[in-house]
Amino acid sequence: MNRRSRLLAAPLIGAAIALTAAGFAPFVSGADAAPARAAAAPAHPWMNPKLSPDKRAQLAVAAMTNDEKLVLVFGYFGTDFGTRFKAHAEARAGSAGYVPGIPRLGIPAQWETDAGVGVATQGGAAHKRERTALPSGLATTATWNPDTAFAGGAMIGREARMSGFNVMLAGGVDLLREPRNGRNFEYGGEDPWLAGVMVGSQVKGIQSNNIISTIKHYAVNDQETDRGEGNSIIEESAARQSDLLAFQFAIEAGNPGSIMCSYNKVNGTHACEHPWLLTQVLRTDWGFKGYVMADWGATHSTVAAANAGLEQDSGFGLSSTPYFGEPLKAAVAKGEVSQARLDQMATRILRAMFANGLFDHPITEAPLDLPAADLAKHADITRADAEESMVLMKNDGAILPLSPDVKSIVIVGGHADKGVLAGSGSSLVYPVGGNAAPGIAPTGWPGPRMYYPNSPMAAIQRQAPNAKITYVSGDDPAAAARAARKADVALVFATQWVGEAFDVSLTLADNQDTTIWAVAAANPKTVVVLETGGPVLTPWADEVEGLVEAWLPGTAGGDAIANVLFGKVNPSGHLPATFPKSLDQLPKPSEPNKGDTTYSEGAAVGYKWYDAKGLEPAFPFGWGLSYTSFDLGGLTAKPGNGTIMVSFSITNTGKVAGAEVGQVYVSGTGWEAPKRLGGFEKFYLKPGETKTARFGIDPRLLATWDLAGHCWRIAGGTYTVILGASARETSQTVQVTLKPRTLPATWRPGR
Ligand code: BGC
Questions:
Q1: Ligand 1 proximity of 130 Cβ (cutoff 6 Å)
Q2: Which pLDDT value is given to residue 498?
Q3: Is 559 one of the annotated active-site residues of the chain?
Q4: Which atom of ligand 1 is nearest to the CA of 169?
Q5: Of 3, 7, 114, 117, which is best to mutate to test ligand 1, by the most ligand atoms within 8 angstroms of its C-beta?
Q6: How does pLDDT run across 113-135, given as a tens digit for each residue?
Q7: 315 CA from centroid of ligand 1 (Å)
Q8: Whose CA is nearest to atom 11 of ligand 1?
Q9: pLDDT reading at 237 higher than 70
Q10: At residue 404, does pLDDT exceed 50?
Q11: Which of 24-28, 235-239, 467-471, 717-721 has the weakest average pLDDT?
Q12: 186 lines ligand 1 (CB under 6 A)
């Protein structure tokens, strides 16, 4: 199945439209097809880097014809699409998108690449760029370390730049409200603060390469089922306190050049023509200065979209209806879209290009292969991220870390003899060395099902050179149990394949639960290693001694898993999402449906829901063990700066170095749930070492959204501040009394 047929419902319009970039858009004719080079461009006043991005954009737009402005606001698919669409010659082959430059004015092209784990190649492309993949976005969030997110972003942004791209379509921050959402692996988990801080840090890292990154998919795009037409119904205050707050925090932390509006409808209106989302919330309330680009095929109108606040239509060629371009030209001529609005659209895109260095640091090349030395350095970065992301969920009898002297290991399942699983869809990064387990259906969209060629089994053998290691596929539970019976340890690799355009089951597919039960019954020394996109059901958890969540660990994932299993790295990941005990614990136990989805749980997403309903999950949000032990204490909480100022200390009370996350939750009244995460800090500590954290809680996390007053309100009264190592472990609590406070919708830190 090709990508387009799965992706979009929009009908093909008349064959009369030549679906080629050059043929379709007459207004491009004024623009030379050759890529712009700032160095070769005449000295225009907007090329002066001493001027502000606003001034430069304003000067450039003043010099542009309307046809040139229309070039800027219209993006093409970067890949040939069957016989219907031939990508522009100047697009990067196999890429997500291309917006032609305007050489007359020294305006560079926008070369767009997916996505959050690295430089992806579109599935239909003849030649794949082989690049470094980070662990999934959810995995990076599980590090609870914004510096790690930044480092990963800086690395993939560097590869984007080295590959000839200046716009990266990364920055997924939709809240994990529906654990079966097939794209949760691209996002930052279930808490707005954690997701916002982590995804924002990654965006900042990407943009440190003088390229633009996006934040996406705006908004409430929390399931893939019927994503093109599905309608997310959510009450405004609840949205402001949950999904929208995650975007708001991510924008403040990352300052992205762009935001991508999503496929779905929100409260009845498509996100890319939603004046409330795109103008009221994003511009008026949040003061966003970048531009809004549509997801590929998410534009549904010309006049409504442009007037609602969409600045750039995307992916024409993959989508078959050109809403901007000629139709926008006609709408401006008729006055349905004002000249001022077209100018504003062009200005916002150019401003982001100036602000993020696209003019002053032009892209100079686009090689298909990257130098081996760079890839080696980048492998270290992705490996470190993966190692830090892994969550030691269970470790009975200290079965882990494994000894390098272990004599026999049986490895079961997950193609662990070959590689590690990746998430699929437009964000799929193709690795150097190709698919380690090719040919597993689906081999086309939304696949391929990809295994990165970094074998956990080979890495385990390197750690335990004298061990006899046997691999069995796990397809036959009885055979797996027989093989496991006599081994010193049995490692079962269980996988959940996830990707774009479909939702998933929380029960492991292909009878993997049965295999785990069989192996655990045969050998008490059983450790399960999960490679999943997000939470799954773990009905066998009591039967196994060890459990490690390795997520989708990226192109160095096999080494990272072995390093954690053998204690070369002390695990320090914490769950960014709750693992339910059963589906009936979810706000909506039935599968994601088509049409309307009412999020009646409102802002009580994830652990907040479990707290509000008094449910005991299998593993709580924030959970994560270590090979050492920590003492969390010394909590202080006082009113200050219009919020609560907290401090606490963490001491490593064990025998090996390790890292711990101190999580500060706050309990207030009249909230969607008993408590909210107010902040966190991760410390690396040598044995016996203590470090102290001090920060102020973002006051919006103490407030509720006042619909009538259009503002945040902190109620006067007593708040309980809780220090813990997860949402369900409390080390200490302190009470604080706050005076009432009102924050305008436009409130931001530092203003
Ligand atoms: C996805 C986006 C992606 C775009 C370009 C869409 O299908 O939803 O996340 O950036 O394609 O490939």
A1: no
A2: 98
A3: no
A4: 10
A5: 114
A6: 999 999 999 988 889 999 999 99
A7: 9
A8: 296
A9: yes
A10: yes
A11: 24-28
A12: no
Distance 540 CA to ligand 1 centre (A): 36
Helices (H), 321-435: 326-333, 339-355, 372-389
Confidence check: pLDDT of 1 > 50: no
The answer on pLDDT for 570 being more than 50 is yes
Mean pLDDT, range 279-287, rounded to an integer: 98
Q: Which residues have CB under 8 Å from 616's CB, separation 6+?
A: 581, 610
Give the whole-angstrom CA distance, residue 190 versus residue 307.
Answer: 32
To test the pocket of ligand 1, the residue of 426, 500, 502 to mutate (highest count of ligand atoms within 8 Å of its CB) is 426
What number does the ligand 1 atom closest to the CA of 216 have?
Answer: 9
**Which one from 114, 295, 513, 611 is the annotated catalytic residue?**
295
Residue 2: is its pLDDT beyond 90? Answer: no
Mean per-residue pLDDT, 331-341: 98
Instruction: Assign domain 400-597 to its CATH superfamily.
Output: Glycoside hydrolase family 3 C-terminal domain (3.40.50.1700)
Higher pLDDT among residues 36 and 177, named by residue = 177
Reading the block at residue 360, the tokens are 């002053």
Judge whether residue 356 has pLDDT over 60.
yes
Which residues are within 8 A (CB) of 516 and not within 5 positions of it... i.e. 6 or more apart?
492, 494, 526, 528, 540, 543, 544
Pairwise CA distance, residues 86 & 400, whole Å: 54
Instruction: Please tell me the distance between residue 218's alpha carbon and the centre of ligand 1 in angstroms.
Output: 12
**Does ligand 1 lie within 6 Å of residue 114's CB atom?**
yes
Which pLDDT value is given to residue 365? 84
- In sequence order, the 6+-apart residues with CB closer than 8 A to the CB of 485 are 522, 523
- Lowest mean per-residue pLDDT among 81-85, 279-283, 370-374, 470-474: 81-85
96 Cβ closer than 6 Å to some ligand 1 atom: yes
Question: Start-end ranges of CATH 2.60.40.10 in the chain?
Answer: 628-744
**296, 313, 445: which to mutate for ligand 1, most atoms within 8 A of CB?**
296
What's the whole-number mean pLDDT along residues 407-420?
98
Q: Evaluate: CB of 98 within 6 angstroms of ligand 1.
A: no
CATH for the 17-355 domain, from 2.30.130.40, 3.30.420.40, 3.40.50.300, 3.20.20.300: 3.20.20.300
Residue 694's alpha-carbon distances to 135, 145, 715, in angstroms, are 30, 16, 24
Please tell me the predicted confidence (pLDDT) of residue 385.
Answer: 99
State the Cα–Cα distance between residues 281 and 277, nearest whole angstrom: 5
For residue 96, give the ligand 1 atom closest to its CA.
Answer: 12
d(CA 94, ligand 1 centre) in Å: 13
pTM > 0.85: yes
Mean pLDDT (whole number) for 265-269:
98
Query: Which residue's CA is the closest to the ligand 1 atom numbered 6?
Result: 296
Q: Is 258 in the pocket of ligand 1 (CB under 6 A)?
A: no
Nearest to 490 by CA among 464, 529, 461, 455: 529
Q: Which CATH architecture has domain 628-744?
A: Sandwich (2.60)
**Measured from the CA of 315, which atom of ligand 1 is nearest?**
5
Give 99 Cα–ligand 1 centroid separation in angstroms: 15
Q: What is the mean pLDDT of residues 263-271?
A: 98
The token pair that represents 153 in the structure block:
């972003």
**456-510 pLDDT, tens per residue?**
999 999 999 999 999 999 999 999 999 999 999 999 999 999 999 999 999 999 9
Q: Rounded to whole angstroms, how far apart are CA atoms 243 and 217?
A: 11
Domain with CATH 3.20.20.300 in the chain: 17-355
Give the pairing of strands 690-696 and 643-652: antiparallel
- Mutation test residue for ligand 1: of 206, 295, 312, 428, the one with most atoms within 8 Å of CB: 295
Read out DSSP for 678-723?
Answer: EEEEEEEE-TT-EEEEEEEPPGGGG-EEETTTTEEEEPSEEEEEEE
Closest atom of ligand 1 to CA, residue 263: 8
User: What pLDDT sits at residue 42?
Assistant: 55
